Amino acid sequence: MENPLDLIDAPINAAPINAATGTPTEGTPTDGQDFAAAAPVASPSPSPWFTAAQPLPFTVILPTAYGQMLVNRNDINQTNALFKTGLAIDHTEIEALATILSVAPPNPIVVDIGANIGTYTLRLAAVAGPRGRVHCFEPQRILCNMIAGSVALNGLTNVICHTLAVGAREGIIEVPQFDYRQALNFGSIEFGPEQREPLSQARGHDLAMREFVPVTPLDRFGFTRLDLMKIDAEGMESEVLAGAAETIRRCRPVLYVEFQKSDFEALKRTLQGFGYTLYAVQMNFLCLPREISARFTISGVDPVT
């Protein structure tokens, strides 16, 4: 057996090293071998203390007045307000609906259509209590996933999340293409053939990335009780109401309907035709069934005529 100590005196067949480059001098043989046949010099391994920068995920967990929430750090509207204050940009409106819901019979049922990242959903779920129900509808899959995550983070068992668009009839609709990794007001994305409100991103049209979401009328759910319905559908409010007509007539919920992107007069006539007293609050109609409107005092706001 070879004595390992004998290796100390063994000749080292190494080529001279070029001091400038740290590599063997070109053309110098190593123990009779050509450099072409010698193994290449390995590059040094990267230091374990330094790693390549990774892109930050756009989803973050944020403590808010409504509980722990998953939000998109790139949202320039609702998330911006939540980061700075812990409150939604429309917090006073959320609290107004929470107050109205608090005087409903026990275990109320709520529908939140166009739920965005879930500020209304989480707040109203707290008021509804564990035996109440909040059905939230958000057709943007990414946003609906965030709501579901927030529901799980807060241990809520009374919220049902639906990745659906609510409309006048059954069908499907294409999900507009926008980059969630870039800055945008994601709550202002409009479904339909074009984006009418100017946004900080142009809508994409990559055929390989097309995505569709089901459209369903609310009447399909067959609610026998519904206490409050909030509708913020970015211009599709009339279609939502058409598909919810039977439910509205049967259940007589309080309605909170955005009119910013809709035909104000047409929407007003539709809602009054259902037998509601309307109040203009910010960019929304607060609609009380005429048979109960006398029970409420809306401070500083006159009914819409």
Report on the architecture of this protein.
The chain has 305 residues and is α/β, with parallel strands linked by helices. The protein has a domain at 90-295: Rossmann fold (3-Layer(aba) Sandwich). 22% of the residues lie in helices and 19% in strands. It has 7 helices and 12 strands. The chain has helices at 78-85, 91-102, 119-128, 141-153, 237-242, 245-251, 264-273, and strands at 59-64, 67-72, 109-113, 133-137, 159-162, 165-166, 171-174, 212-216, 228-231, 254-258, 276-281, 284-289. It has a 7-stranded mixed β-sheet with strand order 5-4-3-9-10-12-11, sandwiched between helices. Helix 3 (119-128) links the parallel strand 3 (109-113) and strand 4. Helix 2 runs parallel beside helix 3 (119-128). The chain starts with 58 loop residues before the first strand and ends in a 16-residue tail after the last strand. 32% of the residues are buried. Mean pLDDT is 88; it is low at 1-15 and 27-38.
CATH class of the domain at 90-295: Alpha Beta
CATH superfamily of the domain at 90-295: Vaccinia Virus protein VP39
What series of H and E elements makes up the topology?
EEHHEHEHEEEEEHHEHEE
The percent of residues in helical segments reads 10-25%
How large, in whole angstroms, is the Cα Rg? 31 Å
Kindly report how far apart the N and C termini lie.
Answer: 107 Å
Structural class: alpha/beta
Q: What is the global morphology? A: globular
Kindly list the characteristics that best describe this protein.
alpha/beta; 7-stranded mixed beta sheet; Rossmann fold; 3-stranded mixed beta sheet
